[in-house]
Amino acid sequence: MCDLIDKTKLNIFRRPALNFFFRLDDRLLLITIGALVGICSGLSSVALNSGLMLMFHWLSKLSHLWWFFVIPGIGAALSSLTLEKIFKEGAGHGVPEIVYSVSRYGGLMRLRSAVSRLISSCLTIGSGGSAGPEAPAVMSGAAIGSNIARFFSMNDRQRITLVGCGVAGGLASIFNAPIAGIVFTIEIIIGEWSAANIVPIAIASVAGAQISRLLRGNQIAFTHLNFDTDITATLAAIGLAVITAVVSIVLTRTLRRSYAISSRIAVPVWGRAAIGGCLVGIIGIFLPQVMGEGYHAIQRMVEGTFNGGAAIVALLVFAKIIATGLTLGWGGSGGIFAPCLVIGSFSGLMYYHLISLLLPGISLINEGYFALLGMAGLVSGTLQAPLTGLFLIVEITGSYEVILPLILVSTISTTISYAFEPASFYLKDLIERGHFLRPRTDAKVLADLGIREIIEKDCITVHPNMLLGEFINVIQSSHRNYFPVENEQTGEFMGMIHLDGIRSYIFDPLLYETVFLEQIMETDIDTVSIDDDLSDVLDKMDMNNLFSLPVVSSNRFIGMVSKATLLDKYRSELRLQAFY
Amino acid sequence: MDLKLLHIFRNTPFGREMLLGSSYFCKKTGVSPVIYIPEYLKFLMYFENDVVQVDLDKSFLKAPGTAKEHAVDIVRSQGMPDPEFISPKQFTASTLPDIPVNFNFMCCPRSITDMSSKIGLGYIGPKVRRIVQSAKFPVLIASSIYKEWTSITVMFGGSANAVKALRLGLRIGELSGAPVDVFTQEGKKGRQYYEKEIDKAGLSNEMEENVRKWHVFDSGRLSENLYHIPHGSLIVIGAYGHGVIKDIIFGSIMEKVQTIMPNNLLIVGPNYGVEMG
């Protein structure tokens, strides 16, 4: 009895849904655990931030040395070695990894991912690499959420929500921006707005931001300034949206190109990361603004105290794009958010200078306004997530009064960027490989079903030596119009008989005792394997105008798959996904 | 019914012994071997509630040119038809291959990720442990040197996992025609407790009809009594059925058994649940 009680207690701990309190409402369970995930991911973001501060503090003492340019190289190499040798993880910033796991495997992630990207990106960014700490914070939060869900034996849907909680908590904590955390999670990671998701994600976002406020103080990333916007300023934002869209396309293509170029170099990944890091260091000798996360430069631009004319700022846009490509495309670790903010603010400033030069008579509000809009434009264009760009900038600058031009810039930039690059930087690889599966889409429903679930096994098999007369008796006892033919001795699949194909024989009794099935069966037929993807099976059916296909494994007939059964299962699965 | 066993092939003499062991198991039980020849040192296995990253040791990538030919030769030498080979269909965003897990068995060496020198010393690798803990299929740990088995010994300790192992052992006995023995190290609970558990699982009749002998040891230590298990026996045992804390404090019985016994082991993890026809 005592043993039984202990087991029950353990079960309630591991499976909290068994508890009466949580059974009142499943959402209560998700909210409670979501808050826990938010706190943990908030803590991990604070740890990353503190690590970066420490690295900046130590390495700033070396900045006067002539060989300082090798420091980003050393940092990137160590970062790559840490990922590859210690954590045994692949390179990359991590966001596509989260989307992949959410799309295909209900958000299952490795525990090691909770720390691997934090350490590696700390080394890359802290040493001067051009990247941001947001993607690692997001990756860490997602892995925390996934593993907490695993510990509590939660199902796929609940696990995905907790991964979202981790992402929201991490992002909210690193930027002190809870709304941006929620919006980013829904727009990029989960891809669906539903009450069941939003509430726990919002709670986690609040928990993450609160942890950051407790430990780092309640401060926004950039000083809040009041911008008096008029109709001229709002219209001017349209031009900036076009500029930021073009820059975000260039940035996305440069990152992909950098990766392609570096992959062709026959040195280990850590060697490539070192080369990329050193090149960033060399650029940094002349343009130190391109190094690190670059928030100081943004601060000065927003305040309107940044020195440099249109040419210098244009050079900085170009240099920061190259430095980001050399860091992230060559094996360094970190996110794209911070570089987007920096490049965006440079782009805004460049646009301001250009307008001032071309239209000297126009009275524009100060350059900080354009720097701010530029950030929103570039984040929206690169991530193709207009709401994320919009809310992030409002929260990190506290500038709600520029909401109208912000909406304009974010939406126009996303639209133009989408026209030239239909997939965002985060999702392009996944879309190309067919791994981007959003809930309730055709691809997702088909990916969640397997042949095993729809296979029809009530087929009567016949053998090649059977006489047509005997076969007529078999037909009478079957409700199917196709019959697999198997070798009597070995059980090997030999072909199929479709009633449509043998109608002329059936109605001729003279043939009943003279024709064997071997003579009339079809041998050149398409088959599918039990592990094939249903989307491939459907393509095969459509291509050959078929309604069913035999499933064959190790030369044995297993059953049939038909469009009719698939449609039934498809509808049930769709209903299930819609219900959640 | 089409049962399949996944084998990660290592093109080395040690790998040959392993594949001989799993081919023999397949031949005896009518299971089809499915072979994965790794092209990368890492791959992922996504189970229902866990994802396991397997980091292979470098010997798994040796002589890729001859790997397929060797694997086919080894399987054929057991009088089996040519095996099926799989290659990963999915790659994660960081380009790690992702191997399907919808098999009925998987064959592992004792350690899949660490130095081969540890194999045979009774060391069970952390990844093998994770696979056993997460997989729905039982894991076959073939003996270091190819060894045929002529009987089946089920280690039965009364837990839910042990019941699953007993069920599997009886099924393997039925498929292979090999006699089944049951081995129980009697603790404080007494024989009646074990009988009651078997009865509760509805296995009493099957035990009576298909088990050759039920060895119940009421004295002596487990490590000493294991000597009575025939050397030509496939041991079927449940693992990690007592929960993490108990395993940390008292150790896992399965791990104890596998350090002592050089026999082929078929391990049933806590998530085992594959239907076997």
What does it look like?
Chain A is mostly helical and 580 residues long. Chain A has 3 domains: 12-216, Orthogonal Bundle (Clc chloride channel); 231-432, Clc chloride channel, CATH 1.10.3080.10; 445-579, CBS-domain, CATH 3.10.580.10. Helix content of chain A is 65%, strand content 4%. Chain A is built from 26 helices and 4 strands. In chain A, the strands form 2 sheets. Chain A has a two-stranded antiparallel sheet. In chain A, strands 3-4 form a two-stranded antiparallel sheet. Residues 1-8 of chain A have low confidence and may be disordered. Chain B has 277 residues and is of the alpha/beta class. Chain B has 9 helices and 14 strands. Chain B has helices spanning 13-29, 64-77, 126-134, 160-176, 191-200, 204-210, 222-225, 244-250, 253-260; strands at residues 4-8, 32-36, 42-46, 51-55, 84-86, 90-91, 97-99, 105-108, 139-141, 151-155, 180-185, 211-217, 233-238, 265-268. In chain B, the strands form 2 sheets. Chain B has a 10-stranded mixed β-sheet with strand order 5-2-1-8-9-14-13-10-11-12, with helices on both faces. In chain B, helix 4 links the parallel strand 10 (151-155) and strand 11. The termini of chain B are close together. The model of chain B has no long low-confidence stretch (mean pLDDT 84). Classes of the chains: A mainly alpha (580), B alpha/beta (277). The A-B interface holds A 10, 88-92, 94, 96-97, 99-101, 104-105, 108-110, 112, 150, 153, 429-430, 433, 435, 450, 452, 530-531, 533, 553-554, 556, 558 and B 2, 32, 42, 46, 49-51, 53, 55, 81, 84, 89-96, 100, 102, 243.
